[in-house]
Amino acid sequence: MKPRLALLVPLALAVAVPLAVATVNDALSFAKEAAAPYAKQGFTIREDAWGGDLGVKDQQAVTAQLFRGNEYWFWLATDTRGAVITVHVYDSDGKLAESEFWQKGRFAAAKVTPAKTGAYYAIVTVEKSPQERSNWALVYGYR
Amino acid sequence: MLSRLLFLVSYGLTLVSSLGQIPSAATPPVSIDLSKFPAAAVDEVVVPVPSEIFSVLDKLGSPNWKAEMRDNLGKNTGNRAQVALLLGTVIADGFVAVEAENSESVKQIGQEVLNLADAINVRKAVLARSKSIMDKADSKNWRAVREELDGALQDVRSAMVELGDADLAQLVSIGGWIRGTEVLTSIVGKNYSATGAELLNQPELLNYFTRRIDEMRSSRLKKEDLVGRVRKLLRDIRPLIGKGGISQASVEKINKMTNEVVVVITSEEA
After folding, report:
1. Which chain A residues are Cβ-neighbours of B22 within 8 angstroms?
2. Interacting residues of A33 by C-beta distance below 8 A, sequence separation 6+
3. Which listed residue, of B20, B36, B150, B204, carries a Cα 20 to 30 Å from B170's Cα?
4. Phi–psi pair at A114, nearest 5 degrees
């Protein structure tokens, strides 16, 4: 199936760099591949995804409505070889909400078991990258 | 592709258990100031798919889902705003029918989704989904039906956005949310618990839906009576789900409010 991206407005939209969809799709493919093993653990992975491009040390918040009683994993990837990216999840008070996370180069993930139902913020950061801007894609799953 | 997969297998499976070895650069701060993010970065809200809510409801007990089903799914009046909202409510009804494990109703809903999608020129986008919903309902593969219903909702919205009908696409989501909230409040109201009521704590989502209506590009659509009614509903619900617990009285009030709007959406006079 052709991946679909709900492209959120990147922080640096003012630069108005058109996204090369094919390249963002590469990032999406990586993110979905990172998520795939979790489906076997009972996580339903949403078909839609969020993405964009960011400069080094730039951040993007993706706001999500999460429900207490579910567990969530957020998986992030970039197509930029050599880039290091992270995703961390905060509650509406700005407090770190994740119970686990992992990070390895172009891949990162964070797990949230919401203590309360409400809005949560997945903060995407490009920690370092050999390129000025790096495409990223984020997917999440729940069970 | 194989090399990518192998890479993931070798790292993805082991990194979770190697939390302590993560470089300090990746260690997140325990709190952040969300106000430092530009409004554009946080105002967009990921709308949950209905399955996320039903997944929680599954864990709360065994409600009488059959009692939540409707005989009358509504009528297409030819008004595009009404059809979009109605489509959302019908998809939400699909989830109720899945919970009730009523394959005949699921199949009927699958057909109705197709009919309504046809009315707003996105039949092609949901044709395969509709067939799959019916096939999986026949085989009583309920989890798969849920996923197909989620997918149908997303496909319809994507197709509408591609056609330049982002405003209508939003109404599909809002219609689904209203009917889903009507069902949710009915269930929680019948067996009230603070945990169940907490599922309604969705202020950012309500704000987001309200903004989407306020910022509709089509002034004609925005001025539709039905859209105005929906906007008022969202505004009226907002104070009922503020900080603190959501009382049984609030749950019942939201149920009454959403029910009234669902009746309007499904009626011939919409």
Report:
1. 101-103
2. A77, B4, B5, B8
3. B36
4. -55, 130
Partners of residue B39 in chain A, C-beta under 8 Å: none
Structure tokens at B123: 């039949």
List the structure tokens of A14. 């003012």
**Contact between chains at A48 and B154 (C-beta distance less than 8 A):** yes
Distance CA B239, CA B183 (A): 20
Residue of A nearest to B207 (CA): A119
ipTM for the assembly: 0.81
Report the first-to-last Cα separation within chain B, whole angstroms.
51
DSSP-derived secondary structure for B195-262: HHHHTT--HHHHHHHHHHHHT-S-HHHHT-HHHHHHHHHHHHHGGGG-SS---HHHHHHHHHHHHHHH
| Nearest neighbour of B28 by CB, restricted to A11, A37, A96 | A96
Could you give the CA distance from residue B68 to residue B105 in angstroms, rounded to a whole number?
A: 12
> What pTM does this model have?
0.82
Per CB-CB distance under 8 Å, the chain B contacts of A50 are: 46
Instruction: Tell me the one-letter amino acid at B188.
Output: V
pLDDT tens column, B117-143: 999 889 888 899 889 999 999 999 998
Report helix, strand or coil for B28: coil
